[in-house]
Amino acid sequence: MDITVNHVTHTYQPGTPFMRMALNDVSVAFPSGSFTSIIGHTGSGKSTLAQHLNGLLLPSTGSITAGDLTLEGGSKRKKKKINFKALREKVGYVFQYPEHQLFEETLLKDVAFGPINFGVPQDEAGRRAKACLELVHIPSAFWERSPFDLSGGQMRRVAIAGVLAVQPEVIILDEPTAGLDPRGRKEIMDLFDQLHRQQKRTIIMVTHNMSDAALYSDQVVVMNHGSLIMAGSPAEVFSRDEALQRIGLESPETMQFIRRLAEKIGTPQPTLSAFTMEDTADAVLKLLKGDAAHV
Amino acid sequence: MPNIIDVSDLSYRYQEAGSRVLDHVTLSVKQGEWLAIIGHNGSGKSTLAKCLNGLIQPEQGNVVVSGYNTKDESAIWKIRRRVGMVFQNPDNQFVGATVRDDVAFGMENHGVAREEMLQRLDEALKLVKMEAYADQEPHRLSGGQKQRVALAGIVALQPLIVILDEATSMLDPEGRRDVLETMKLLNKQRGLTVLSITHDLDEAVHADRLIVMNEGKVIRQGTPAEIFQHAELLEEIGLDLPFAVKMERLLRQRGLEMTERPLTQEGLVNALWTLRSTM
Amino acid sequence: MFNLVIGQYVPMESLVHRLDPRSKLISMFLFVIIVFLANNWLSYGLLILFCLASITASKLPFQFIYRGLRSVFFIVFLTFILNLFFTNGGLLLFSWGWLHIYLNGLIQSIFISFRILVIIVITTLLTLTTSPIEITDGLESLLHPLKRIKLPVHEFALMMSISLRFIPTLLEETEKIIKAQAARGSDFTTGSIKSRFKAVVPLLVPLFVSAFKRAEELAMAMEARGYHGDEGRTKLHRLVWNNRDTVLLLILAIMTIALILFRY
User: Fold this and answer.
1) What is the pLDDT of residues C28-52, one digit of tens each?
2) DSSP letters for B18-36
């Protein structure tokens, strides 16, 4: 399912002293099957943008098209009733620290909560819950236990399973690895990478982690003070180091390293990008051999 | 340098039937050093931290802070005044209604006289660069700012040591950077001893000394250079490696032999530059 | 979703803002009591004059006061109507079917409406000009003598200030959980009462779990920061009783006497 954002502006608490423009004329497309990372500072409007994509927030002006559904901003909206449920069934949302949303008596019941809300029959919801818990590597011995007996990392995976069980075409992730240790972070990122590659799910991830943004995405969207500054492939976005630095963002470590080395050696800045450790090591070899032009 | 904390043969478990979260841990903290404890979640490092200021009493063994045993109930408030602690969640340790009130909270508890309190309050807020926010309410602050307020509250008590219990893990990169810079300043300029419990290996490489914990045991102690020599061991227990260490290993696999094993990007760039001039 | 302005305190520089919270609290309580002494135009005039003078001295725009009053207009109106129709005596002004309005009823209704209004103006003024922490400090200090009879005055004050501090945090959290469950298809806004009630469970359980976790962590952090009750505790906030506070109490005392005299 394609999602298109057309000139969306969002104003918080309009008409009060606390009024704040959180999004300012943002236009961007998330093509079906793509993996997009939205990067930017805290308060740059990343999460506000993401919450528009499944109708948790509605545009003040502009519109959002998701599949055959359109969310209009402003006065046009009141005329028709929006079918939020149909939208949210197709666009799943994993919140930051999603483990805070667990509430059921058992893992299975919690994971089945979403599908049942969207009208999936009990037994089918149960089957999906089991499949999703397996997918996130929660051993079946835990399935009938309370989610509150699990470790933080396990709770996070159960919460994610709860979103996946709805079988959304598009999955929005808000800082999915925040607060996890390196092992937990890798498990989560591998899971979504797999969902993207094998099942062609569209993934939209809000993140502070530039390395993840570079490694996993087809498209990187950069936000600053509510405006979209740039959008493009990781290679395009992270080659504009100066523009990123101006708004206080850094390139992934791999790129920083290549640039530092090139600078030290005194060769011109390499134009191509490397985001995996292996590619970076190869690039370093070429740089050292004075082969800079082909890096 | 004298030891300010001595932990000897410390064991602890949360439930009597459960397994040991801390298993015969022995270590010491020297005055003025920056000590980092690394290990994955559940390795016992946070439990260890809570033993160091008597929030948890050892089941076995002793914890001695500048001469006071944490088992000695009459000394517990003296110990807590000397051992400051910043926790993981910035929200759940902010007690005051405003920044000033929060920084004062610790001093009020320890009975610091009001005149003295006002002076230390200003000083502490300046040190963490939060003086412009003195009258702000906590929900108007970022996570990084809240953690710096927590640090000011500790500094104002003039402690011997600050323990950071994953204090940067819930922060964004900017907040993390600000908190670490403040800590470095306190360590280098004020000679404050720092014990940092962390997953952030790029932070750990800057420590004077590292302790690696796994399943409640101290499995390695040493300088960062010594610890990261054994990359395989760290990966085995589920820890990541600093970027420079991983990169050095990949380059070695590709036939580049450097004489040293740098821990930072900068070190690696310099090592490669040296290598290139001999190529 | 939560456009509420939490804590109505408006930080400003004014005579009323500078008053000691204790004198403000005492005056407010006293005022609320003496309002019931008023029974004629003269005494109500005096009370209204006091309100207007206080608002002027606080330098707050009247619209702030009005905003506080707006929410209670309905109650005032209802009391007015009830008194208007159910108080007998005096001149019959109006009669329609079984509805009768007497002069006494009209006067009574106006008096009672004014009574409610002045009480609300004065309490609103207190919260608009005194920060929650000042109110807490003031209460703790005023209730201090009750400690002799083993009432946990300090703990009560601390509890109050921590609750106030956590209100915005918990509201933010509530909003986040509502959104997270809405994204999972939960619906709080439509359906039968029963289904709406059921939809509250996925909201309440996470909120309670998180509140307990917060409480646990906060307790640990407080202990680590040396909190052990108010024994040997010093205070950052010092309440200073100035001449203006004494003057305020004197004004209240004079008003009390005047109201008693006006009564007869």
Assistant:
1) 999 999 999 988 889 999 999 999 9
2) S--SEEEEEEEEETT-EEE
Q: Which residues have CB under 8 Å from C134's CB, separation 6+?
A: C21, C237
Residue of C nearest to B104 (CA): C236
Q: Is residue C191 part of a domain?
A: no
Q: Which of helix, strand or coil describes residue B6?
A: strand
| ipTM of predicted assembly, 2 dp | 0.91
Q: Collapsing DSSP states into helix, strand and coil, what is residue B211?
A: strand
Q: Domain residues of chain A, as ranges?
A: 33-41+83-246, 253-294
Q: Which of B16, B108, B137, B166 is an active site residue?
A: B166
Q: Which CATH architecture group holds A33-41+83-246?
A: 3-Layer(aba) Sandwich (3.40)
Alpha carbons B231 and B162: distance in angstroms, whole number: 29
- pLDDT, tens digit (0-9, with 9 covering 90-100), for B34-78: 999 998 888 889 999 999 999 999 999 999 999 999 999 999 999
Residue C33 falls inside a structural domain: yes
Residue C4 pLDDT: 37
Instruction: Please confirm, yes or no, whether B248 is among the known catalytic residues.
Output: no
| Average pLDDT of span C40-66 | 90
Does residue C220 lie in a domain region? Answer: no
**CA A58 – CA A64 distance, rounded (Å):** 9
Q: Which of residues 158-217 of C touch A (CB under 8 A)?
A: 173, 176-177, 179-187, 201-202, 205-206, 209-210
If 0-12 CB within 10 Å is exposed, 13-18 middle and 19+ buried, where does residue B74 land?
Answer: exposed
pLDDT of A293 above 50: no
pLDDT one-digit tens code per residue, B140-159:
899 999 999 999 999 999 99
Nearest beta carbon to residue C236 from set B89, B92, B114: B114
Is C79 inside a domain boundary? yes
Number of domains present in the structure of chain C: 1
